[in-house]
Amino acid sequence: RAGHVALVGRPNVGKSTLLNRLLGQKLAITSHKPQTTRHSILGINTLDDGQIVYIDTPGIHQRGDKAMNRYLNRTATSVLAGVDLVVMLVDSSNWTDEDEMVLQRVHRSKLPLMLVVNKIDTLKQREDLLPLLASLSEKTGIETVIPISARNGDNCDHLEDTILQAL
Ligand code: GDP
Ligand code: MG
């Protein structure tokens, strides 16, 4: 199995932390070099049974009027061209307008979509997790919702497996 996975999400949800976690454990090639004008490769994870290329999505987490205009004018389809799967990260502690913007954009791409709920280590009560996942799934319309802590690695192996299976 192999494929290109776009990691999207507003600033501060933990994308870089997750990447370090995924790439650091099974060290492979990492590069921030822009590959094309559309994609920046964040890293390539070579596993026993496949290879996952993680890319960022320029523009998706920019703010401000100009950026917003660019954002709206460029179709998600062109920005996410060549991507096999979109993984959207959110912070378990809150859902913001920026998350909503990212969601609208990824929905327009019509690509397979997975939701990763990060920072579950910050939840006050373990029992809050399942209702949170259910409500996020309902809010976003995304069926596959995976809770993780990128910081301490909780469930990150499961995430990687799920990504591989989806490719
Ligand atoms: P990015 O902007 O999406 O790339 O987010 P970063 O990876 O830079 O993380 C933003 C902040 O959230 C940093 O202070 C991270 O240490 C913190 N963070 C990331 N993942 C976790 C997590 O799983 N748990 C907690 N508690 N903090 C996290
Ligand atoms: Mg980052």
UniProtKB/TrEMBL annotation:
Location of region: G4: 118-121
Span of the signal peptide: none
Segments for region (G1): 9-16
Compartments, record wording: Cytoplasm; Cell membrane
Region (G5): 148-150
Region (G2): 35-39
Ranges of residues in domain Era-type G: 1-167
Gene Ontology CC annotation, any one: cytosol
One annotated GO biological process: ribosomal small subunit assembly
Subunit composition and interactions: Monomer.
Role noted for this protein: An essential GTPase that binds both GDP and GTP, with rapid nucleotide exchange. Plays a role in 16S rRNA processing and 30S ribosomal subunit biogenesis and possibly also in cell cycle regulation and energy metabolism.
Family to which this protein belongs: Belongs to the TRAFAC class TrmE-Era-EngA-EngB-Septin-like GTPase superfamily. Era GTPase family.
Protein name: GTPase Era
